[in-house]
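Lecture notes, continued. The same structure-token format from the folding unit now serves as the input rather than the output. Read the line below as a description of shape only.
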């Protein structure tokens, strides 16, 4: 369980370069590592080729898998992202996160929740995406949806979509960041419940620090504890080597 498949470098908003992040992963004795810079809507993609080359050079002789990837944005309810087939074909792994793009213009909370649930279900049939980054990162969205606003039935429906679409649920180490108004112990309890639901539906998990510096890379202790408490074993984790 000692891997980190979600990090950023100077190719997006990270502070360290590819080489330093991979060096850090080796120093921390991680079993696998991924560089997943932001692929945001309207931003150029001309850095991808160079990033891929640098990751390939940096992983040579490391003794553990180092994947080159991106973190795409979910941009609509139908499961569309910023990722194109051409870009995906150059990468080992693709993450996608919900960033509130395509939110309906309404103040009706139920309508917003419905939209969010559709986004989560439909992203699962997007063949270009492997991992859903920090699922249910809704606490800072203008919609102000709380984790408990989504019904257990909807969580189960989303979980089955993850399973059937082969999408990995990323347990992001600093997930608390999205819920600044919730006491961390309460947030943990709520998130553990969600992870248990997904685990019971047969969903597999990934782990990411979402680090933007060497200080955060490999910072996965909270994720590891949460997955253990949810009863998730090694067999229900992503196999990073299978992406190479
Ligand atoms: Zn993200
Ligand atoms: Zn990220």
């Amino acid at each position: 369980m000692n891997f980190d498949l979600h990090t950023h470098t100077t190719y997006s908003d990270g502070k360290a370069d590819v080489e330093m992040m991979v060096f850090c992963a080796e120093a921390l004795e991680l079993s696998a590592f991924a560089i997943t810079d932001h692929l945001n809507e309207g931003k150029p993609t001309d850095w991808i080729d160079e990033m891929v080359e640098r990751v390939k050079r940096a992983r040579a002789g490391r003794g553990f898998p180092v994947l080159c990837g991106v973190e795409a944005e979910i941009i609509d309810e139908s499961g569309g992202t910023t990722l194109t087939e051409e870009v995906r074909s150059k990468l080992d792994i693709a993450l996608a996160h919900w960033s509130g793009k395509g939110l309906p213009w309404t103040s009706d909370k139920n309508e917003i929740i419905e939209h969010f649930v559709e986004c989560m279900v439909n992203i699962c049939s997007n063949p270009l995406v492997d991992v859903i980054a920090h699922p249910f990162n809704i606490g800072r969205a203008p919609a102000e949806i709380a984790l408990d606003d989504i019904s257990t039935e909807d969580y189960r429906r989303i979980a089955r979509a993850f399973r059937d679409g082969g999408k990995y649920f990323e347990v992001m180490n600093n997930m608390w960041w999205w819920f600044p108004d919730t006491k961390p112990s309460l947030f943990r309890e709520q998130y553990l419940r969600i992870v248990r639901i997904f685990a019971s539906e047969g969903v597999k998990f990934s782990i990411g620090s979402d680090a933007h510096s060497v200080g955060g890379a490999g910072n996965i202790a909270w994720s590891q504890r949460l997955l253990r408490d949810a009863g998730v074993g090694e067999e229900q984790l992503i196999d990073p080597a299978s992406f190479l």
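Point for the exam: The radius of gyration is 17 Å.
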